[in-house]
Write a structure and sequence with these properties.
The chain has 287 residues and is an alpha/beta fold. Helix content is 40%, strand content 13%. The strands form 3 sheets. Strands 2-3-4-8-7 form a 5-stranded parallel β-sheet, with helices on both faces. A two-stranded antiparallel sheet has the order 1-9. A two-stranded antiparallel sheet has the order 5-6. The longest helix is centred in the first third of the chain and has 25 residues.
């Protein structure tokens, strides 16, 4: 791993991931219900991207030289909101307004309402196409910005994902770095029972992508190593797009739901909130 990533930095990123989990749980609990599982499974990735990887300026969300982030699995917006608040894009107390009337933080990320959100999430698969379009536009303009895209495994049953995969390889979008949150679960059960993806890494490789398959997608050093492998910092706009398949645990951090089908979108009462927060605090203390 890059020698600039020392153990202190890894601990910092692990703690940030823990705080993202805690704030996600608190904001969903404040509303009463929400998409918990898929939000918790990407907390480690968000910590790495917003705590180390991406070129960003929270004080200037529209900075022309920023890297773009696209959360195509937009129902996991609570984790993105928690991350943006922790990084200073907007006040932390906004998190208490999730999904309420008049909020700036709707169920799915909205670029017109949320500072730091680059692309509005809509139907599953849609964000992937927008990400590829942004990457192509940046490439045509000769810019060095990168586009970081997160898709879900259930989402990857959508044909639009594979149309994007063809397009990105055809146009040699080397500035596009995508991640699949491969937690094995979707709204109504296990992905393998509903419409199995099989070997997702092999599929993207066959489509012409540079691929890294990460067996523990919730491990911060493994995510950092994968990014180094695909050359995200040094990669050029003209080249293979990159896919990092992260084998994650849906709902990680809260044992009551972790890896279970009921983790997709649930209600959280105060007792459950406190239990979950305490478990995540144990993770933070152990970092």
């Amino acid at each position: 791993m890059n020698e600039n990533i020392n153990m202190d930095k890894i601990r910092e990123l692990k703690r940030l991931a823990g705080r993202i989990r805690q704030e996600t749980i608190k904001e969903i609990s404040a509303f009463g219900t929400g998409h918990v599982g898929g939000s918790l499974s990407i907390a480690d990735l968000l910590a790495v991207l917003y705590g180390h990887e991406m070129n960003i300026k929270p004080e200037d969300p529209q900075w022309a030289d920023r890297d773009w982030f696209v959360l195509s699995k937009g129902h996991s917006a609570p984790a993105l909101y928690a991350t943006l608040a922790l990084r200073g894009y907007f006040p932390m107390d906004w998190l208490n307004t999730l999904n309420r009337n008049g909020t700036n933080l709707p169920s799915h990320a909205d670029r017109l309402k949320v500072p730091g959100v680059d692309v509005t999430a809509g139907s599953l698969g849609q964000g992937s196409s927008v990400a590829a379009g942004v990457a192509l536009g940046l490439k045509m303009d000769g810019r060095n910005n990168k586009v970081y895209l997160v898709i879900g495994d259930g989402e990857s049953q959508e044909g639009q994902i594979w149309e994007m995969a063809l397009f990105a390889a055809q146009h040699r979008l080397g500035n596009l770095i995508a991640f699949m949150d491969y937690n094995g679960l979707q709204l109504d059960g296990y992905c393998q029972d509903i419409c199995s993806l099989g070997d997702a890494a092999a599929k993207f490789k066959a489509f012409g992508w540079q691929v890294v398959d990460v067996s523990d997608g919730n491990d911060v050093p493994s995510i950092l190593q994968a990014l180094e492998t695909v050359g995200s910092k040094s990669g050029k706009a003209d080249g293979q797009p990159s896919m990092i398949v992260l084998h994650t645990v849906k709902g990680l951090g809260w044992s009551e739901i972790a890896g279970k089908p009921k983790s997709h979108s649930i209600s959280i009462n105060e007792q459950e909130r406190d239990q979950a927060l305490a478990e995540v605090q144990t993770m933070i203390d152990a970092a």
